[in-house]
Amino acid sequence: MRLHARHDYEADPAEVFVMLTDEAFLRAKLAACGDTDVRVLECGPGPGGFRIVTRRMVALEVPGFARRFLRPANAVTQTDVWSDPDADGSRTGTWQVEASGVPVTMTGTMTLTGTSRHSVEEIEGAVSCSVPIVGGRLATFVGRTAAGNLVAEHAFAERWLATRTG
User: Mean pLDDT score of the chain, rounded to an integer?
Assistant: First the structure.
């Protein structure tokens, strides 16, 4: 399953990047989306750019076909790596999400571009599962859940940014 999200912000790319890499923001965003035991394991310069690693417990309403592969609460680790900014302040990056014991792979790219008053974060990705017979359904279920999370995370980010810039 393919993922795509476009997040518009009424702030310049530097302000948005500061938000996206703020440990307090990361913890609050994930908790607001219902995740528990949220931990920021890394948040700073690292191999390949600015590296963010979070770990959290994600609760799911697991459909019958997926109960063999997913639990109602799954430990999820996400790694984002952002490049250094280009001359115009834009950045690119990669992301990866892994869940302990879950046979689903989620990876993708992200970009942050904009002007002095507006930014766009674009997120592209793929969700796949190699389990025979139910792999496609499992990837679609996880992908739809991830897409919903991206919408909720963006709404939270807009509120967060508005309280800091408005």
Answer: 94
